[in-house]
């Protein structure tokens, strides 16, 4: 029961982080959205994670694909988390 609650909490946290990152990425489509107070808070939360990918993945022309890779990695982490809990704890 406790392991299921831990899994559920981690899964929800990864899901919320992914959705928030998607919102942050979409904010770049609207002028001034990232400069707003909400945009600055999102920047403090998501830019450190995105910066890891930007160091290794150069932009393709004017398109930055590092957020896409970051979202894919978060999804893989969530899937991997589920597999670990199923394998080791039999959820």
What do you see in this structure?
There is one protein chain. This protein is mainly α. The protein has one domain (2-79). Helix content is 77%, strand content 0%. The protein has 3 helices and no strands. The termini are close together. The model has no long low-confidence stretch (mean pLDDT 94).
Give the gist of this structure.
The protein is mainly α. The chain has three helices and no strands.
Report the end-to-end length measured between terminal Cα atoms. Answer: 9 Å
The radius of gyration over CA amounts to 16 Å
Query: What's the story with the biggest beta sheet?
Result: none
The count of DSSP E runs of length 2 or more, i.e. the number of strands, is 0
Helicity range: over 70%
* SSE ordering: HHH
């Amino acid at each position: 029961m406790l392991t299921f609650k831990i899994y559920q909490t981690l899964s929800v946290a990864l899901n919320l982080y992914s959705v928030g990152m998607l919102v942050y990425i979409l904010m770049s489509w609207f002028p001034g959205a990232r400069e707003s107070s909400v945009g600055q808070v999102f920047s403090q939360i998501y830019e450190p994670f995105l910066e890891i990918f930007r160091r290794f993945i150069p932009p393709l022309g004017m398109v930055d694909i590092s957020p896409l890779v970051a979202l894919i990695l978060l999804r893989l982490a969530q899937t991997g988390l589920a597999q670990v809990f199923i394998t080791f704890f039999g959820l």
